[in-house]
Amino acid sequence: MSDEYASAPAGKSSPPRTKRTGLTSTGARKAASKAPRTRSREFALQGLYQHIVGRNDATSIDMFTRDLAGFHKCDALHYDALLHGCIKLEEDLNALITPKLDRKLQELSPIEHACMWIGAYELMHCMDVPWRVVLNEVIELAKEFGGTDGHKYVNGILNALAPELRATEVEADKAGKTA
User: What is the mean pLDDT of residues 138-160?
Assistant: First the structure.
C-alpha cells in the first residue's frame, strides 16, 4: 500500500472515484472513446513516421501496421487512403507545406511532418470531412504523439493551408460566424 493511503482513516484505503470523461490525465481521448476514423489517423501517423524516419515502403508499413493491436477497430479504408495517399503524394504535400514553414522541412519533427501530411491530404482529398474537423483531428494527433507545443505549429500551418485547399468552405464558415 502506498504511503499516501497508509495513514488514511479506517475504511478509506483508496482514493475517491473520479468521473469517467473519456479523457486521460493528459487530456487525450481514451482508446475506448475513439472513433474509427480517429484510430485510422493514428495508425496512418505511425506508418508515416516509419516512412519519414526509416524510409520504409508503403507495403511493408501496411503489412506491419495491420498486425498491430486494435487495428481492427479503425476505418481501414480511411487508413489506406491516408497512408498510401500521403506516401504517393509526398512531393506534392511537401510542396504545399514548405512555403508556409518558418524553417527547413528537414527540421520538422517526424510527427509534425506526418501530421501536416495527413491534414493537407485530407483537406485535398477527403471532402466528406469538414475542414475544421480535419484541423481538430490532426491537432489532437500532434498533441497526443508530438512534442510539447508541436500541435500549435501544426495548427498554424494547416490554418494557412485551409483557405487555399478549401476556399469556398472556409469562406462560408467564416461568413456564417460574422453574420
Answer: 93
pLDDT tens per residue, range 46-74: 999 999 999 989 999 999 999 899 989 99
DSSP result, 12-48: --SPPPPPP-SB-TTSPBPGGG--HHHHHHHHHHHHH
| 20-41 burial code (b ≥16 CB/10 A, e <16) | eeeeeeeeeeeeeebeebbbbb
Q: Which amino acid is at 136?
A: N
Which residue matches cell numbers 508515416? 48
What is d(CA 14, CA 78) in angstroms, rounded to the nearest whole number?
43
pLDDT greater than 60 at residue 24: no
Q: Which cell goes with 90? A: 509526398
| Bridge partner residues of 23 (DSSP) | 29
Q: Give the predicted TM-score (pTM) of the model.
A: 0.79
The pair phi, psi for residue 101, each rounded to 5°, is -80, 155
